Amino acid sequence: MSLTGEISILEIGCGEGGNLKPFLDLGCKKTVGIDLSSKKIENAKRFFQSHPKRDNLKLICADIYDVSDIGTFDLVIARDVLEHIHHQDVFMEFVKKFLKPDGKFFLGFPPWHNPFGGHQQICCSPILSRLPYFHLLPGILYKKLLRVFGENDQKIRSLMEIKETGITIEGFESILQQRNYQTEKRKFYFINPNYEIKFNLKPRVQARLLGLIPYLRDFITTTNYYVVSPHRQSIKLRPYPIS
Question: I need a surface site. Which of 31, 73, 160, 172 has the fewest CB within 10 A?
């Protein structure tokens, strides 16, 4: 699949559309972004209103499960979305309806057990926002600690929901197997590329050996990227690289 104007892109959880811009810049004629947040979709519309390829972009405020008339795509993107979704196995099956026969699905998510897998960096408390691993406490203690440090009810509800939906590398790869996906490529990061903007830290790929150790890698990998596609019986599964 080459990046030409004929390539079609769907991003689930597009936010304000930053991930879609490079594809629009390349001239992709069908570029669609979907997000639950009306505020983010409105911001995205303002951001792209003067883009020369604006007519190639469609932005939709909706729950992906309520969308059915947008067709199929060469590439579906869900970056930093999976860890917020309940019943990820159902989601992975549902997304197949948006993929062309040779379509690819790109996903990225922070493993639950990583130092900031609970998204505690969004805490108002400067201590909690920098405190690694405390999201792994039992739910009752975790919630009590959030209250002690002054987090409001809305923030606590958000963090507790992430605790419910957080997903591990092993859990995700189990879903891929259950839902009949093949992994074409994966990459684990010791330092999340997002941290360059947030914390001025240069991205760093996880050491290959550590990336091969189940469970341990969840605690030291801050994000992972996968390219997967629905497995077809006529395609023989092949080994895939970590990077």
Answer: 160
- Residue 191 phi, psi dihedral angles, 5° rounding: -120, 115
Q: How far is CA 124 from CA 15, 92, 129, 146, 153, in A?
A: 22, 33, 7, 10, 12
CA distance 77 to 20: 9
Kindly state the helix (H) or strand (E) to which residue 90 belongs, with its residue range. helix 88-95
Are residues 124 and 152 in contact, defined by beta-carbon separation less than 8 angstroms?
A: yes
How far is residue 109's CA from residue 205's CA, in Å, rounded to a whole number?
15
Q: Over the chain (243 residues), what is each successive 10-residue block's mean pLDDT?
A: 74 96 93 97 96 95 94 97 96 96 96 96 94 97 97 97 96 97 96 83 92 94 97 50 46
pTM over 0.85: yes
Report how far residue 135's alpha carbon sits from residue 118's, in angstroms, rounded to the nearest whole number: 5
How far apart are the C-alpha atoms of 103 and 228, rounded to whole Å? Answer: 9
Q: Which two tokens stand for residue 191?
A: 């330092």
Q: Say how far apart CA 182 and CA 179 lie, in whole Å.
A: 9
Residues 6 or more apart whose CB falls under 8 angstroms from that of 49 comprise none
Please name each of the domains of the chain with its CATH number. Answer: 8-112+167-230 (3.40.50.150), 120-165 (no CATH)
